[in-house]
Fold these 4 entries.
Entry 1:
Amino acid sequence: MEDIARLVGVHQTTVSRALRNDPRITEAVKIRVQEAARQLGYRPNPLLSALGTLRRQRASAYYQTVLAYIVKGGATGAHLSGALAAAEQRGYKVECFEIGPQLHESRLNGILIARGIQGIILGPLPEAHGHFNLDWEHFSTVVIEYSFTQPAFDRVITNSYDTMNIVLAECRRRGFTRLGVALHQIVDERNEGLLCAAYALARERDPGMAPLPPLLMPDWDADAFLEWFEHEKPQVVISSNFFLPHIEACLQKLNLRVPDQISLVNLNVSSHRPNDSGVCQDAPAIGGIAARLVIEKLNHNDRGIPASRLTVLTEGHWFEGSTLLQHCQPIPSPRPPTSPRDGGQQPLSS
């Protein structure tokens, strides 16, 4: 601010007030000061700004620097709760901003800059490869999951490859051989194809595992699922929250009981489906890690797009649930004919 004051030819106090849009400063002086600030690359320190605010207001209330948690499409998910807790422990506050018809990205950009909010957590986007534009050079930014692809910010991601391997290992340990994967195409793309990659490699390396092709659909298609199910005859259907309610409805129409006659496994067990067997990705822990990374970047004045992106992989853990049998039931097989009268047509064992 001393440099700005010298350049403009005013007192440092005037610079401070002009940068805060103090009504005591004329509009002409504000414009000169703010233009000089842009020329010199001035950036306010949110921690010092907070301290200055407390001193000016003689406030006794505890001040918390704000981090922005930005979502698009209306879904905050459980990541936000983890970010809130981690930030609170470190003296920060998290506010959620939803980009949509009521808050365009350009307006959000102005709000963040005007309020001096410099730490941003970008929540998962509804699309597979999404993005939006802010003046990124003003912000310390961390992304959750793969869906926000450009610019390439530091990110915290569930190890999707490992998630599929955990599921396959657990199913094989229980004796299942026919493991079918049915996923929404967006789920596969949002995980960079790693779920299907792990599944394909496991089929190649494990001779005891039936080579069932995965079913990827751009949207739910009951006819396509039933055709795949009848042809491949999986003992276990591995899916996610997008399709599992639809799959359960189809199985009920076929009078198949879960898990007695067909088992289900969820790749992302959540509080919305607490009875599912599968992998818990621990979204609150992911949100907490993202908040800690943003705070570390703020403390080091690390803003803008990184030259080399940092990716933090988190590990999920198996959640037992009640939709996967403890032991695989033997697959019925035909009995050999006992007499010529049978004509080789012997009923299957029950």
Note: Residues 332-350 have pLDDT under 50 and may be disordered.
Entry 2:
Amino acid sequence: MNVLGVAAFAAVVGFAFMLGVSDAPNASASLIAARAASYRSAMAFSFATHAVGGLIAGQAVALTITSLVHLPTDRLPGAYLAASVASLSFTLAATRRGIPVSASIALVGGLAGAAAVEGGWGAVGWGGFHGVRPFGVIGTLVAIVLSPLLGGLVAAATRLGLGRLLRRGARPLERPLRGAIWLTAGLVGMADGSNDGQKAMGLATALLVAAGTLRSFEVPLWVTALMAVVLASGTAAGGRRIVRTVSSRFYRGGPLADLAAQGASAATILGAGWLGAPVSTSTIVASGMIGVGAARRRRHVHWPTVRTVVVAWAITVPASALLGAGLVGFGRLFEVVW
């Protein structure tokens, strides 16, 4: 692997860490909101569950990620380097402001922009669907858009169903409900670690294939372990501001609402992983919280925060695409000057 390949691999590792940072609230926000765990306990739990999820991950999502770009092996490292740096930069800027954007969405935009400049529009894997399985940029973006809507609707329906079922007995069951939140939070963490971990695993494995280190695309065990631990470390290092945004600034509805949101989010992420869809887990979890709030008490949802986050999600792809394209263009200019 040449210097550019090594730099691209290092950037993918950094992307895995930033994925974890943006995923920090996913398994911990509900525990904190329900007062089932302290901040430190919740983050330790997040690390453990995300690591386990990454270690037991398959490679369906990893294969989908590699379908976003069609470039010769000598140009692939440059595109991956630019896309990873673009995703890192955009996600870091948003996270520092407490806005839970998606590093996954930023990666899709960064890859599309970098590939377009590196090899023309034909180098972008536009894709679509093989049956119900998404592939390429279009299929991935459709899955990313639909999955939080589905997660929010399922969370709202679950909250209403639990509310009717436990209308008279929710308060005595508050302690068992908090225990159930640990279970659903664990499922979210493992599902999250599996789906997001595979994104970095796919990029890293494709780089190894391009460099001739691997003969065929099959994620090595050491790559799986490396990305799982790096991703989990990012979730544990996630800032308090983004955790606070998801745990309290969307909607605070008690253990029942947290249980419904986490359960719906886990089911949605696991279903997406089974289809090989590299979805944005952070948007699914946030939408779950919004869904339970809208179903129960719409006026208690903090809609200005919701609007800010939705706008951030909407500009992620074009902003990251421009960053990825600009970085590739800068790299070419540097080569000419050098």
Note: The chain has a mean pLDDT of 85.
Entry 3:
Amino acid sequence: MKAARFTESQIVAIPEQQDSGQTIAQSTREHGISEATATADPFYNWRANQGGRQV
């Protein structure tokens, strides 16, 4: 089975930062994720699936 690339805390924190007004570029730089990954499907799936989860 393939290992996860991103931690659970990243998956929850990045959409929360977007809600607080940070840009995608700022939050991805902070977490060490490329901007191309952030604008691709995984980021939007995290946002859709996050649904108020907390770390």
Note: Residues 25 and 35 are 6 Å apart (CA to CA).
Entry 4:
Amino acid sequence: MEKLGKQTIKFSNPPTILECSSIVGPKEANGPLAKFFDQTLEDEFWGEKSWEKAESKIIKEASNMVISKAGISSQDIDCVFAGDLLNQCISSSFGLREINLPFFGIFGACSTFVEGLSLGSILTESFANYVLCATSSHFCSAEKQFRFPLELGNQRPPSSQWTVTGSGATILSKNGSGPFITHITPGKIVDMGIKDANNMGAAMAPAFADTLIAHFNDTGRSPSYYDGIFSGDLGYVGKDIAIDIAKSKGYNIKSNYNDCRCSYF
């Protein structure tokens, strides 16, 4: 590994994304990305008694699916990085407890999956042959966690996000023919004082823009180098803020940037 600039790591032997899997809920199944998901659900409970249990089931099955698709045994995996949006990462820890592998519970909100890929890449550069990275979220449990339980029937303002119900998982391999993870740029906490729980996009956009600009500075690349630039869940309001911040720093990302939440629905 080699450190570039202030925040970026360049891998000497880039890990391969060996395989990936995804399971999503019914709203996502009706969105523009529907054909790309491995499995879609007919309802948010998926046969469970609570939304939290449903989320644990989703990440469990997505992880089992990616292991099967990769054609390896679960015992070939050296460790797992997984997280979700709930306190103490209960969806991930309960969902993956039966996998019986060294487990790192991580929390990065919308960046959790990329955080897992980043840490997993560092491990494959050192000792690990295979690393499982997974994350999950559930609209109904996330609303209870961050805003208001759905039973209260609170009106949602235009700035509030709609958290994805679903899970994504991938296997990183020390060896393979790609696609590769060649660089990672960890972000910093950037707090601009936004306290509105219904406007999390505005709260997160400054950190996203700061990380993106750090990546450009460290690598010497411009936005046009990439086919696509994506943020996690800034929503339409946060997306516009991120574009404006980047533009104020001399980077025009508008033509090839999109937010994942805006892509889903």
Note: Residues 27 and 265 are 8 Å apart (CA to CA).
